[in-house]
Structures are given as C-alpha cells and as structure tokens.
Amino acid sequence: MAACDLAFPNGTVLTPDRRTLIIAETMANRLTAFTVSNGALSERRTWAAFGDPPATTDVGKILEEAAVVPDGICLDAEGAVWVADVLNRRVIRVTEDGAIVQEFETGGLCAFACMLGGDDGRTLFACVAPTFDETEAAAHHRSSILMTRVEVPHAGLP
C-alpha cells in the first residue's frame, strides 16, 4: 500500500516534474503531498492546511467545523492548486502554505470538481450542483459546468 490513513481522498494532481503527488483530503481540512520516486510514494506532508484536523470521525461534525472541504483539484503554472470547496460553494486558489489567494464563487452551488483548460489553459471549469445529497441530486438533475477566465494557466497532470 502506497499511502494509508487518508481522510476521504478525492482530487489528485501530479506536478509537472512528476515528483510530487498532491491529494485533497475532503474530511481532513487539508491537501496532502507525497514525493514520487521510482514509482513509490514517500515523504508524506501537509501541503496546505485550512485549520486543525478534525478531532472526530462524525461526518456531520466534520462538515460543520471544516473551513474548507476540498474535493476536486487542479494545478496551475505557478504551483498553486485550485480547489473545489464543496461545502462552501466556491473554487479557491491556494498556495502551498495554505493561503487562499483567489476565490471564484459558484452562485450558491456546491463545487465538486475543477480543471484548467481551453486553448491556452486559462479557462477554469467547475462542475457544480445544488446539493451533495444523492437522492435529491438524482431527482432534479440540475448540475452544470461553470467557466471563468484566470491569469495563470494549467500545469501538471491531469
């Protein structure tokens, strides 16, 4: 096993040099990084923390207390990570120290995934929906993709 004890891992990015893997830990209020070497992961570290890790495993309490609930992520050419913050209904641009340097509000919709793309890599796409409740989402089919332009283009994989 390459990594264990991750708190609901979601989005992942690999830096352009393919030496760092960054994981969004949805239930841990953080992004976690690993060094990639010879096909193995090592040197686990917090890449960005948005507050203290939860002191409980109760999902309801975690969601109530979390400053950021990271879901999908993507990397830009300055090394910042765009984070779909599902509960706070936004997409944020975060630096390695955890500073939120840019924010794109999603009009009251939950943001589940984000990606930089388009011809020049400067279009930020966000997959959004009114809820993360599976039953309600399946009944209403009101999800969409939002787009906005940003200054710094895409980097890394995907």
Q: What order do the helices and strands follow? A: EEEEHEEEEEEHEE
- Shape descriptor reads globular
> What structural class results from the helix and strand content?
mainly beta
Helix content: under 10%
Number of strands: 12
* Biggest pleated sheet: 5 strands, antiparallel
Poorly predicted residue ranges: none
Strand content: over 45%
Radius of gyration: 15 Å
The number of helical segments is 2
- Side-by-side strand order of the widest sheet: 8-7-6-5-12
End-to-end separation in angstroms reads: 22 Å
Mean pLDDT: 92
Description of the molecule:
- The protein is mainly beta and 158 residues long.
- The chain has two helices and twelve strands.
- Strands 8-7-6-5-12 form a five-stranded antiparallel β-sheet, with no helix packed on it. It has a four-stranded antiparallel β-sheet with strand order 1-2-3-4, with no helix packed on it. Strands 9-10-11 form a three-stranded antiparallel β-sheet, with no helix packed on it.
- The longest helix is centred in the middle third of the chain and has 7 residues.
- It is globular and about 45 Å long.
- It starts with 8 loop residues before the first strand and ends with a strand.
